[in-house]
Amino acid sequence: MRFLAVGDSHSFFWSGRDDFSRTQSDDDRYHVFHCGPTIAYQAHKIRESLDTTVDQWLDTHRSLYSHAIFCFGEIDCRADFLKQAERQQRPVETIIEETVDRYLAVVQGINAKYDIPCLVQSPAPSPDENTHQDLAFPFVGPAAERNRCALIFDGLVAAKTAGHPSITHFTVLRDLLHENLLPRDGITYDGIHLKQTVRPMVEAALMEAVQRLAAS
Question: In the chain, which end has fewer C-beta atoms inside a 10 angstrom radius, N or C?
């Protein structure tokens, strides 16, 4: 079993390190395909406008992988959903659902073209603005609202992939949040990206999803 982890900087979680230093994990079961700061709303770009697109990579390397993991959405939750809701004067729930539909259309296209089982990972929690500020990772709105958006996003992905024979969802998002929707302490190494200390929890959710697909 070998996984291709496709995503924004959160895909580097699967390298097994608390940094962005390499795409090949020390654990040979995982290989990272980093797509830059791509948002879920524009996930189509991973098939169209990267120096090497996901399609170009899989055209040559599909036989290496049993599954693909997709890691997008944290940027949308942190910086885009509340901004777009205000800008467009529409409910944030509508903005989120449109994003999920666009994102899953890309996953479905890759799944169908390459006959590869796809696992959609929950976004990481958005940081508490009172304890973390980094201009490299801007945010819009209070953390609790951003993480409410993340839970809506995560729930829609789960609902819209339910019952699909070769696409499913796995999540630890709720476990990484307090009841007030602020992130739990010590789960990230830079305020944004998950630490390897939470990997056993994430990997358990991943493997449960793999088993769920195998049984479908």
Answer: N
The label of the residue with tokens 């997709």 reads: 70
DSSP class of 88: H
Query: Alpha-carbon distance 108 to 165, whole Å?
Result: 11
Q: At 150, list the tokens.
A: 């993340």
Calculate mean pLDDT across residues 95-115. Answer: 98
Beta bridge partners of 70: 6, 120
User: Using only C-alpha atoms, what is the Rg of the chain?
Assistant: 16
Residue bearing tokens 């996953």: 107
Query: Is 127:192 a contact under the CB 8 Å cutoff?
Result: yes
**Structure confidence by residue, pLDDT tens digits, 182-207:** 999 999 999 899 999 999 999 999 99
What structural domains does the chain harbor? 3-215 (3.40.50.1110)
For 5, the token pair is: 């982890």
Place of tokens 């201009």: 135
Question: Taking the model in full, what pTM does it have?
Answer: 0.95
Question: Residue 22 pLDDT more than 80?
Answer: no
Angle between helical axes of 92-114 and 81-88 (0-180°, round to 10): 120
pLDDT, residue 131, reads 67
CB 46 within 8 A of CB 6: yes
